[in-house]
Fold:
Amino acid sequence: MSERTFTTDELAQYDGKEGRPAYVAVGGIVYDASQSKLWRNGTHVRVHQAGADLSTALQLAPHPADRMERLPKVGVLNAPAAAPAATSSEVPWYAAFSYRMHSHPASVHFPIALCAVASVLQLAALVLHCRTCETVASWNLVLGLASSPLPILSGLVDWRFQFDGRATPLFVWKIGLSAVFVVVGAAALAIRFFGGEGMGFLYDLLVLSFAPLVLALGFIGGRITFPT
Amino acid sequence: MSKDRKERVKEIKAVLEVAVLAMPKERASQEFYRNAARKAPGELSKRIFEELAQQEEQHEAKLKAIIQILEAELKSLE
Structure:
């Protein structure tokens, strides 16, 4: 007798509910779990549902994969097999090198410190009416922004290859605030060196905003590196 | 989206973030043990470090599986 071939949609009909058989697919083979006490009503350990491909879920099982061999086989699943979990050998050499050399944490402190100092000096310039403070603040800003491409690039490479580019809230915030950093920095520099009269207040605001901005970026970086 | 659903989505996202943040640490541990195995002076210690590296590789694979499952559940809820 030729074995039956199930599509994913067909398999979903065998969910073990309302008297229907409970079929489970693992590694492309469809098993009948209807008579198993561990699959009452098509549910296993209150987590896994029959009528689905559980190849990935089986990797987390506390029992060995060959436990499925105890169940009768009823066919094969005609669906792309779930991709095996990738491991560290799939990270490109430059990404592995960047991470091993700590490129991001090593370089990120430069723009953070320089732009934070720019904010402090700009505040001093405003409070003390100190022209020298303002000039030094602007050069700190220039150096801070000039030193930002490497940490931004290495951060993106680390995110892509070490964290699989997943947009979890921490990374959304980190990348979003980094974009704000670049925009605010470019705007501040444009005003400082090319801006006209009357833009002083806006410039002051932009430079002062760097302090909380880089603090937030540093905090998020710390949460990523030392998760709690 | 109902309140319960929103709570469930929030819960899944929080757990997903834990798994994502843990992944590079597993890779770093693998490399650490493999380097140790290469430098190990004796056959026994070499085998132990290789075994530890393999366990870290399995941890990474399990984290990837957890992430796949959680992302699938998130997709069905959103």
